[in-house]
Amino acid sequence: MRAILDLLLPPRCPGCGQEGTVLCDACRAPLERRRDEPPGAPLGLPAWIPEGLVQLEWCAAFSGPIRAAVHALKYRGERRLSQPLAEALAARWRRAGRGGELMAWVPVHRQRRVDRGFDQAEELARAAAAMLDLPVASCLERRRRTVAQHELGQQARLSNVSGAFEVTDAGRGMVRDRWIVLVDDVVTTGVTLAGCAQALHEAGALAVSAITVARER
Question: Among 15-24, 46-55, 174-183, 203-212, which stretch is predicted with the lowest mean pLDDT?
Fold first, then answer.
Protein backbone atom coordinates (compact mmCIF):
# COMPACT_ATOMS: atom_id res chain seq x y z
CA MET A 1 0.00 0.00 0.00
CA ARG A 2 2.85 2.37 0.78
CA ALA A 3 4.40 1.69 -2.63
CA ILE A 4 1.07 2.35 -4.35
CA LEU A 5 0.63 5.58 -2.37
CA ASP A 6 4.13 6.73 -3.30
CA LEU A 7 3.37 6.02 -6.96
CA LEU A 8 0.03 7.83 -7.02
CA LEU A 9 1.05 10.66 -4.66
CA PRO A 10 4.84 10.95 -4.68
CA PRO A 11 6.17 12.28 -1.38
CA ARG A 12 7.67 15.75 -1.23
CA CYS A 13 10.08 16.84 1.46
CA PRO A 14 8.30 19.47 3.58
CA GLY A 15 11.55 21.24 4.35
CA CYS A 16 12.86 21.93 0.86
CA GLY A 17 10.20 20.64 -1.52
CA GLN A 18 12.35 17.92 -3.07
CA GLU A 19 10.08 15.38 -4.74
CA GLY A 20 10.45 11.64 -4.24
CA THR A 21 11.46 11.67 -0.59
CA VAL A 22 9.30 12.12 2.48
CA LEU A 23 12.18 13.89 4.27
CA CYS A 24 15.46 14.44 2.41
CA ASP A 25 18.85 13.80 4.00
CA ALA A 26 19.63 17.50 4.37
CA CYS A 27 16.34 18.29 6.09
CA ARG A 28 16.59 15.17 8.25
CA ALA A 29 20.05 16.18 9.49
CA PRO A 30 18.81 18.29 12.45
CA LEU A 31 17.14 15.15 13.84
CA GLU A 32 20.55 13.48 14.03
CA ARG A 33 22.47 16.22 15.83
CA ARG A 34 21.36 15.31 19.36
CA ARG A 35 21.19 11.56 18.80
CA ASP A 36 24.43 10.74 20.59
CA GLU A 37 24.53 13.61 23.09
CA PRO A 38 24.44 12.81 26.81
CA PRO A 39 21.01 12.88 28.50
CA GLY A 40 19.54 16.23 29.45
CA ALA A 41 19.75 19.73 28.04
CA PRO A 42 22.89 20.88 26.23
CA LEU A 43 24.85 23.89 27.48
CA GLY A 44 23.02 27.14 26.86
CA LEU A 45 19.51 25.80 27.35
CA PRO A 46 17.64 25.73 30.67
CA ALA A 47 17.80 22.23 32.18
CA TRP A 48 14.17 22.29 33.28
CA ILE A 49 12.00 19.20 33.62
CA PRO A 50 8.19 19.52 33.77
CA GLU A 51 6.63 18.62 37.08
CA GLY A 52 5.94 14.90 37.44
CA LEU A 53 8.64 13.78 34.99
CA VAL A 54 11.92 12.13 35.90
CA GLN A 55 13.41 12.81 32.44
CA LEU A 56 12.65 14.85 29.33
CA GLU A 57 14.43 14.28 26.03
CA TRP A 58 13.93 15.69 22.53
CA CYS A 59 15.54 15.25 19.13
CA ALA A 60 15.79 18.71 17.59
CA ALA A 61 14.91 22.38 17.89
CA PHE A 62 11.43 23.23 16.64
CA SER A 63 12.54 25.29 13.66
CA GLY A 64 13.28 25.09 9.95
CA PRO A 65 12.69 21.71 8.29
CA ILE A 66 11.72 20.02 11.57
CA ARG A 67 8.92 22.51 12.17
CA ALA A 68 7.83 22.01 8.56
CA ALA A 69 7.87 18.21 8.98
CA VAL A 70 5.85 18.26 12.20
CA HIS A 71 3.30 20.63 10.67
CA ALA A 72 3.02 18.48 7.54
CA LEU A 73 2.31 15.41 9.65
CA LYS A 74 -0.02 17.17 12.04
CA TYR A 75 -1.99 19.53 9.82
CA ARG A 76 -1.64 18.15 6.28
CA GLY A 77 -1.98 14.48 7.16
CA GLU A 78 1.37 13.43 5.68
CA ARG A 79 1.52 10.28 7.80
CA ARG A 80 4.54 8.94 5.94
CA LEU A 81 6.57 11.38 8.01
CA SER A 82 5.82 9.41 11.17
CA GLN A 83 8.48 6.85 10.19
CA PRO A 84 11.57 9.11 9.99
CA LEU A 85 10.42 11.13 12.99
CA ALA A 86 9.87 7.95 15.02
CA GLU A 87 13.29 6.67 13.96
CA ALA A 88 14.80 9.80 15.51
CA LEU A 89 12.78 9.32 18.69
CA ALA A 90 13.90 5.71 19.03
CA ALA A 91 17.56 6.53 18.37
CA ARG A 92 17.58 9.33 20.94
CA TRP A 93 15.88 7.19 23.57
CA ARG A 94 18.31 4.31 23.04
CA ARG A 95 21.16 6.72 23.77
CA ALA A 96 19.66 8.93 26.49
CA GLY A 97 16.73 7.06 28.03
CA ARG A 98 17.18 6.27 31.71
CA GLY A 99 14.49 3.60 31.74
CA GLY A 100 10.89 2.86 30.86
CA GLU A 101 8.64 -0.17 30.64
CA LEU A 102 5.65 1.06 28.66
CA MET A 103 5.29 3.69 25.94
CA ALA A 104 2.22 5.95 25.76
CA TRP A 105 1.40 9.24 24.07
CA VAL A 106 -0.17 12.62 24.72
CA PRO A 107 -3.61 12.18 23.15
CA VAL A 108 -5.59 14.67 21.10
CA HIS A 109 -9.25 15.13 21.93
CA ARG A 110 -11.49 12.52 20.29
CA GLN A 111 -13.17 15.16 18.10
CA ARG A 112 -9.82 16.40 16.83
CA ARG A 113 -8.87 12.82 16.08
CA VAL A 114 -12.07 12.42 14.07
CA ASP A 115 -11.38 15.67 12.22
CA ARG A 116 -7.80 14.68 11.35
CA GLY A 117 -8.43 10.97 10.95
CA PHE A 118 -5.51 10.05 13.22
CA ASP A 119 -3.52 11.14 16.27
CA GLN A 120 0.01 12.19 15.30
CA ALA A 121 1.48 11.40 18.73
CA GLU A 122 0.01 7.90 18.58
CA GLU A 123 1.56 7.35 15.16
CA LEU A 124 4.94 8.38 16.54
CA ALA A 125 4.63 6.35 19.74
CA ARG A 126 3.57 3.13 18.05
CA ALA A 127 6.35 3.33 15.47
CA ALA A 128 9.04 4.22 18.04
CA ALA A 129 7.87 1.54 20.47
CA ALA A 130 8.19 -1.11 17.76
CA MET A 131 11.77 -0.02 17.07
CA LEU A 132 12.61 -0.05 20.79
CA ASP A 133 10.82 -3.35 21.42
CA LEU A 134 8.69 -1.70 24.11
CA PRO A 135 5.00 -2.39 24.70
CA VAL A 136 2.74 0.53 23.83
CA ALA A 137 -0.66 1.34 25.32
CA SER A 138 -3.56 3.68 24.70
CA CYS A 139 -3.97 4.57 28.36
CA LEU A 140 -4.60 8.33 28.40
CA GLU A 141 -7.53 10.36 27.16
CA ARG A 142 -8.17 14.07 26.83
CA ARG A 143 -11.42 14.70 28.66
CA ARG A 144 -12.10 18.07 27.07
CA ARG A 145 -10.93 20.07 24.10
CA THR A 146 -8.20 22.57 24.79
CA VAL A 147 -6.95 25.59 22.90
CA ALA A 148 -3.65 25.11 21.05
CA GLN A 149 -0.94 25.84 23.63
CA HIS A 150 1.13 28.04 21.31
CA GLU A 151 -1.72 30.56 21.29
CA LEU A 152 -1.57 31.10 25.07
CA GLY A 153 0.61 32.67 27.75
CA GLN A 154 2.15 30.69 30.59
CA GLN A 155 -0.69 31.10 33.10
CA ALA A 156 -3.34 30.47 30.47
CA ARG A 157 -1.53 27.28 29.43
CA LEU A 158 -1.73 25.98 32.99
CA SER A 159 -5.47 26.62 33.13
CA ASN A 160 -5.95 25.24 29.63
CA VAL A 161 -4.77 21.71 30.50
CA SER A 162 -5.67 21.59 34.19
CA GLY A 163 -7.68 18.40 34.65
CA ALA A 164 -7.79 17.83 30.89
CA PHE A 165 -6.19 14.37 30.99
CA GLU A 166 -7.08 11.15 32.74
CA VAL A 167 -6.11 7.50 32.55
CA THR A 168 -8.79 5.31 31.01
CA ASP A 169 -10.41 2.53 33.00
CA ALA A 170 -8.66 -0.03 30.80
CA GLY A 171 -5.36 1.81 31.15
CA ARG A 172 -5.24 1.79 34.95
CA GLY A 173 -4.12 -1.80 35.14
CA MET A 174 -1.50 -1.16 32.45
CA VAL A 175 0.20 1.80 34.13
CA ARG A 176 0.11 0.78 37.79
CA ASP A 177 3.61 0.24 39.20
CA ARG A 178 5.20 0.79 35.78
CA TRP A 179 7.60 3.35 34.36
CA ILE A 180 5.85 5.14 31.50
CA VAL A 181 7.56 6.87 28.55
CA LEU A 182 5.33 9.61 27.13
CA VAL A 183 5.65 10.61 23.46
CA ASP A 184 4.59 13.90 21.89
CA ASP A 185 5.54 15.89 18.82
CA VAL A 186 6.67 19.17 20.42
CA VAL A 187 7.37 20.44 23.94
CA THR A 188 7.19 24.15 24.69
CA THR A 189 6.58 24.88 28.36
CA GLY A 190 6.02 21.26 29.37
CA VAL A 191 2.60 22.01 30.84
CA THR A 192 0.84 19.39 28.70
CA LEU A 193 3.39 16.72 29.60
CA ALA A 194 3.02 17.63 33.27
CA GLY A 195 -0.77 17.25 33.01
CA CYS A 196 -0.39 13.77 31.54
CA ALA A 197 2.22 12.83 34.15
CA GLN A 198 -0.12 13.91 36.94
CA ALA A 199 -2.90 11.70 35.59
CA LEU A 200 -0.52 8.74 35.27
CA HIS A 201 0.81 9.17 38.82
CA GLU A 202 -2.73 9.39 40.17
CA ALA A 203 -3.41 6.06 38.45
CA GLY A 204 -0.43 4.46 40.18
CA ALA A 205 2.42 4.85 37.69
CA LEU A 206 5.82 4.30 39.27
CA ALA A 207 7.59 6.96 37.17
CA VAL A 208 7.02 9.00 34.01
CA SER A 209 9.58 10.11 31.43
CA ALA A 210 8.94 11.89 28.14
CA ILE A 211 10.48 12.28 24.71
CA THR A 212 9.41 14.56 21.89
CA VAL A 213 10.48 15.14 18.30
CA ALA A 214 11.23 18.79 18.96
CA ARG A 215 11.62 21.40 21.65
CA GLU A 216 10.57 24.99 21.15
CA ARG A 217 13.29 27.21 22.58
Answer: 46-55
- Residue 200 scores a pLDDT above 80: yes
Residue 6: C-alpha distances to residues 1, 10, 49, 84, 146 (Å): 9, 4, 40, 15, 35
What digits encode the pLDDT tens for the residues 29-83?
Answer: 999 999 999 998 887 777 789 999 999 999 999 999 999 999 999 999 999 999 9
Q: What's the pTM value of the predicted model, to 2 decimals?
A: 0.90
Domains of the chain: 2-38+46-215 (3.40.50)
CA-wise closest residue to 205 among 68, 94, 84, 100: 100
From residue 35, how far is each of 29, 94, 130, 213 by CA, in Å?
10, 9, 18, 11
Asked whether the predicted pLDDT for residue 15 surpasses 80, the reply is yes
How many Å apart are CA 89 and CA 124, to the nearest integer? Answer: 8
Phi, psi of 66 (to 5 degrees): -70, -40
